[in-house]
UniProtKB/TrEMBL annotation:
Organism: Pedosphaera parvula (strain Ellin514)
Membrane-traversing stretches: 45-63, 70-91, 97-115, 122-140
Name this polypeptide is given: Uncharacterized protein
Keywords from the UniProt entry: Membrane, Transmembrane, Transmembrane helix
Length: 144
């Protein structure tokens, strides 16, 4: 670190270089290192993810005997998976263009980026639920 460096104690932002520093090395701008516990529960991802899981569960149970409901289940699951993939790609491109193209072209790298490189817990939660939904769809009997 250079002499006279001024760092933010919450996020590690270096005013001299304009970069975020974590553990003495530059890091991507993103979530501060100190978690903010002042956020109300309804402004977190958990209740909305619970709503998505509940909606998927209801549509699946109704769709076992009703093909249009099963189509609704498949549409909601597909929409969720595509949305999560787009969000992950946006975060990867914010990291760097090279990281974004790797995540775009190599799907397993996108998973690596989300869980190892990114420090965004909400992204990890969204992507993890997407993986579980994808695995669940593979084991479900969607056709009759």
């Amino acid at each position: 670190m250079g002499k006279g460096a001024v760092l933010c104690t919450n996020c590690g932002y270096n005013l001299a270089t304009g970069q975020r520093t974590v553990a003495g090395r530059p890091a991507a701008l993103g979530k501060p290192t100190a978690p903010n516990y002042d956020v109300p529960w309804y402004k977190t991802a958990y209740p909305y993810l619970g709503g998505v899981v509940l909606l998927l569960g209801i549509l699946y149970l109704l769709g076992r005997n009703n093909p249009p409901m099963m189509l609704g289940f498949a549409a909601v699951a597909f929409l969720y998976l595509v949305t999560v993939q787009i969000i992950a790609l946006v975060f990867a491109f914010k990291e760097s263009v090279g990281t974004g193209f790797l995540a775009l072209c190599i799907p397993i790298y996108c998973t690596y980026f989300v869980f190892k490189v990114s420090d965004n817990d909400t992204l990890k939660l969204l992507y993890g639920l997407g993986i579980l939904i994808g695995i669940g769809i593979n084991f479900m009997d969607l056709g009759h």
